[in-house]
Amino acid sequence: ISCCSLLSAHAAASDGDFDSFLFLVNVSEEQKRETEAFLASHGVFAQVLTIPEERLSELPKHRLPKSMYGRLLLHEFLPSFYERVLYSDGDTLIDIDLAEIFSSDLHGNTIGAVLDIGRLISGLEKSDRERLNLGPDGYFNSGVLLMDWAKWCSERIGPRCIEALQAEPERFKSPDQCALNMICSGAWQPLPAVFNYQPSAQLTKPEAKAVFHFLGNRKPWRNDGLRHEARFIERYRSFFLNSPWASQWPEGLGENAWQYEVSRHFKRTFTPRNWTIRFKALAILDSQPARARVSS
What we know:
Elements: H1 2-12, E1 19-25, H2 29-41, E2 47-51, E3 84-88, E4 92-94, H3 98-102, E5 111-115, H4 117-122, H5 124-132, E6 140-148, H6 149-154, H7 157-167, H8 175-183, E7 188-190, E8 211-213, H9 230-241, H10 257-270, E9 291-295
Parallel strand pairs: 1-2, 1-9, 3-9, 5-7
Antiparallel strand pairs: 3-6, 4-8, 5-6
Helix pairs in contact: 7-8, 9-10
């Protein structure tokens, strides 16, 4: 899935003026070589970096995979000469030119991010803000982060998040994300919603071009992919069936794309709770050379 994210980013990029890194947790050298070879066969020469599971063993256990903590360890792997680093979760499909994101004005802040729409709509954001003593700038989703790399490293954002997680694990409901919100409170710049568009949380018509972030358990590459647009199912199906992981694609999923689209539209229109959530959206926009994109 992370490979698909990287391939989509390169396909949408207007220039290749950035280095690519793919972070994986606890994989064998053979798996690492296979992944690098697959990406290279598509013209994407990314550095695949592995994080040993022991490195994450002291951090709080959670229902989410331990790879979520990878973003807090970036400073241990990436060189200091980058001016900006763009991190994205592996469950993203990047259909927007990265130059648009890299050129965003951070107004002197350490990171740029998008508000967590799902938590805002559900009311969880209010309790997050109270529990973490956040400022009025709200609670962001950590799935896509644009980092001023010098600030990120000099301010020890990753280590400070880890220290906080180890000191008070019960305080952080979504461990890495809550820790980042607490440590970066007052030092993050809101970015346009299209830079981390969360389809499962936004029930208005989806954007044509965006970084699509498939939050939660329902993913376009799983049997419950019915909840997503046919175009997303088709993209992932095409990727899987032309990869070394073709056998992992659910049998029959996406073969009749129009049926999925009709089913999804029916659910979207007639599920009762949709009527109570419909009306929320957001927006905001520098230019730097040495850049890196990271996916995990």
